[in-house]
Amino acid sequence: MQTPTDAADLPGGGNPQVTAWRQVRQGLKSWPVMLALIVLVAVVVIALFAPLLGTVDPTLINPGARLKPPFSDYLLGTDAFGRDVWSRVAYGARISLIAGLGAALVSVAIGLVIGVIAGWFRSLDGLIMRTMDAIMAIPGILLAIALVSVTGASITTVLVAITIPEIPRVVRLVRGQILTVRGEPYVEAALALGTPLPLLLWRHMVPSTIAPLTVQGTYVFASAMLTEAILSFLGAGIPPEIASWGNIMSEGRMYFRMLPGLILFPGLFLSLTVLSVNILGDALRDALDPKMVRRI
């Protein structure tokens, strides 16, 4: 009977990162995940190349072309101010993607630092986690509306308002992961060898959080896009003169019976984008944590 004699004989060449990414690639081969990836890439392409896709200035007002139906002189019709709905939807994709990506990156970065501190320094753990619990006790939408009301509506304010409620969730995730691995033999061996604390945390502790943080980041991405749309729909988000999917739906609700597309088209783009991100997040979770799949 032959036994593996070196790392090359082990699955993934003995490299856990190679094995993890191989599992991710295999998980992305299913047709729902491929379809979600195609939809997400299409939305990103529309956002990046909006000026080249038959659009005009999304703020251009044409009173003579008010409330035109879809698929006439305008692809998706016009709104009550005569603005091209397709142009506003295409440019509005930029706001949603910026809100989602910005909130995900900032919340993951801040949550990682705070979570590592809470998980390693036991003297600070209680204070940090009680602070996080206090933030989580405040409804995210109310906190966002309060911040926007105090500081004024802008993309920066909206990003801050969306990011703050997401940080405690990331902190709890990272803290739990750090508490799990801090008792592992390789960590104790590194401490016994006198490894400096910053190097110990960076080399031996932080890598264990990458997989769960990647999955959590996708959920924050989708949640942030929904929150931005809700705030804009309520009039407490992006300024009305800036095209965003929430603003388009908010302005179109008065004319929903006449032209349902004023709400349906941006709503469809938002729903498909959020659904695609969530499907990709589920695929990453299943690929990076196969034990969870077996338990289910």
Automatic annotation (TrEMBL):
What Gene Ontology biological process does one annotation of this record name? transmembrane transport
Location comes to: Cell membrane
InterPro entries listed in its UniProt record:
BP-dependent_transpt_permease, MetI-like, MetI-like_sf, OppC_N
| Membrane protein topology class | Multi-pass membrane protein
All copies of the ABC transmembrane type-1 domain together span 97-281
PROSITE patterns membership: ABC_TM1
The question of whether Coiled coil is a record keyword is answered with: no
Question: Where are the membrane-spanning stretches?
Answer: 31-53, 97-121, 141-164, 217-238, 259-281
Could you give one GO CC term from the UniProt record?
Answer: plasma membrane
Task: State whether keyword Membrane applies.
Answer: yes
Stored Pfam families: BPD_transp_1, OppC_N
**Which UniProt keywords are listed?**
Cell membrane, Membrane, Transmembrane, Transmembrane helix, Transport
Annotated family: Belongs to the binding-protein-dependent transport system permease family.
Q: What is this protein called?
A: Glutathione transport system permease protein GsiD
Species assigned in the record:
Achromobacter insolitus
Q: What is this organism's lineage?
A: Bacteria, Pseudomonadati, Pseudomonadota, Betaproteobacteria, Burkholderiales
Q: Which gene encodes it?
A: gsiD_1
